[in-house]
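Exercise 7. Given the components listed, write out the predicted structure of the assembled complex. Treat all entries as one system.
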Amino acid sequence: MIQKILIANRGEIALRIVRACRELGIKTLAVYSEADVQSLHVQLADEAICIGGPKSADSYLRADRIISAAEIADVDAIHPGYGFLSENAKFAEQCESCNIKFIGPKSKSIKMMGDKAVAKDTVKKAGVPIVPGSDGPVENEAEAVKIARKIGYPVIIKAVAGGGGRGMRIAHNDISFAKEYHVARNEAEKAFGNGAVYIERYIEKPRHIEFQILADSHGKVLHLGERDCSVQRRHQKLIEESPSPFLTSDLRKKMGKAAVRAAEAASYENAGTIEFLVDAKGNYYFIEMNTRIQVEHPVTEECTGIDLIKQQILVANGEKLSFDQGDIKFEKHAIECRINAEDPSRNFAPSPGTIGLYYAPGGHGVRVDSHAYSGYVIPSHYDSMIGKLICFGTTRKVALERTYRALSEYIIRGIKTTIPLHKAIMADPVFIEGKATTAYMEDFMSRTPPDLFS
Amino acid sequence: MIYVKSPMVGTFYRAASPESKAFAEAGTKVVENTVVCIIEAMKIMNEIQAEVKGTVIEALVENGQPVEYGQRLFKVKQG
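Answer.
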C-alpha cells in the first residue's frame, strides 16, 4: 500500500501530483533544487529535501540523489512527472531494484518505446498503421538516399533517440536531402548522444492527434479518447483540445482500437499516449508513444471526468481499473492553453523574472494548473511554462468562448506571457472553425499583426 | 566563519564506524582534503572532505541524521 510518494519533478506538474496525493491521503516528499526553494509545491508537500544546485543536471536529473532521498525518507513510490527522468528506462530500473515503485510503465516498456525505430516496428507488427519509412535507422548516406527516393519526397529525417519535437529535418529533393541528412545526424549526436537517424515520408499539413492510454497491471488496456494538439510552434504544443474537431466517431473508434493495440504490443501499464499524424483524408499514422503522463493530460480529465494522476497512483498500487471502455464517455469539450513566460513579439524569447500581481481566472468550467503566485520569481534554469488554462463546456463553442473570457481575466504582471497570443488564436476564424493543422501557427503568425498578440 | 556543506543526499556519520573516533570535533584543525565525515548514500559510504582550511567550531548535524544537498554540516573558523 503506497503511503508516501516522492515527486521527482517541479513546477505545475509537481503541484498537480501533490494535490492528487492529498486527496488520496498519501504523504508527499518534494525534492527540489536550490532555485526552487520558494516553489509552491515545495511549500505544500509534507516533506522536502534539497537535491542539488539550480541546473537540472545538478538536481532534477540526478537519479542517485533522488533515490538517496527516497531511501532516507522511506518512500514507497516515485512519481517522475513529465520530462526529466520520466522516460529514463535506467532510472525506472534503479527504482525497481531498490524496491521503490516507479509510477509509470515497466522499464522494459520505456526502453522499447524510447527507441523510435523499435517503437514503429513493434506497433507495425500489431497492425497499427505507421508512416512509410526506413525500417529502423539508416546505415549510411547512400542507403538513406535510396530509401528517401523509394518512400517519395518530401521526407523527414528523425533522430532515433529523439522526442519532444527535437532532432527532425525535412528534405524535398535529393540535393537538400544530402545536406539535411548530415545536419540531422550532427544535431542528434549533440542533443541525445546518439547520431542514428531514420527516415519517414513527410505528411503535409497533418493534424497531430494523440490518444490517452490507461492500463492496469492486470491486463486491462483502455483509451480515454483523443487530444488534438495541432496548434504547435516549432513542434512545441501551444493549445490542445478534446475531442478533436476533425475526428468522426467512426475514425475515433478505429484509432482508439489501434492505440490500444499499440499499447498492448508494448506490454504497457499505467498512463501513456499514442501519437498519430492524420492527413486531410483521415488516413492516420503512428509516430511515437510517450511512456509518461503528459503536460496536456487535464484536457482528457475534463472531457472524460477521470482523474488521470489518481488513476496512475491506483494502478501503481496494484489495483484493477474500476471501469471499462464502454464506461468512458466524452461529455465535455475541453481546450488547454499553455501559458509560457515568453515574449511573442521578440520571437518568443524567454521572459524570466519576478511576477508582480498574479490573478487567475475562475468561474464555471475554468481550471488553472499553475504554480505561479504574486511575488513568485520564475527561475531561468528550466522551461518557460508557468501554467495551463483549461476551459471546458458542453460544446466546443462554449469552450472557445469560455477560454477567450478566462484569458481576458488572467493577469500576470511583471513578465511577458503568451496570454495575448492565445486570445488572438481564440478569436481567429481558422481556429474557430476547427480547421487548424500543424501548419496553422506559421500561417497565423504571418497574417496576424504582432500588436494583436503581444 | 564558514560552513562545510553537504554535496549529496544521504545519512551523516561522524566516524568511519560505530566504534571509531569521530573524524572532526570542536577544535580539530582541518585543511582542504581532511575527511570530516561520512555521508552514506545508497549503501555507499562517501568520505566528505572539508574543502576549507581552519578549525572546526562545531558539528551541526547529529550522527545518523539524514542530510540534504547544501545542508550545513560543520561550522569552521577559517584560517
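Discussion: Residues 56 and 76 of chain B are 4 Å apart (CA to CA). DSSP finds no helices and eight strands in chain B.
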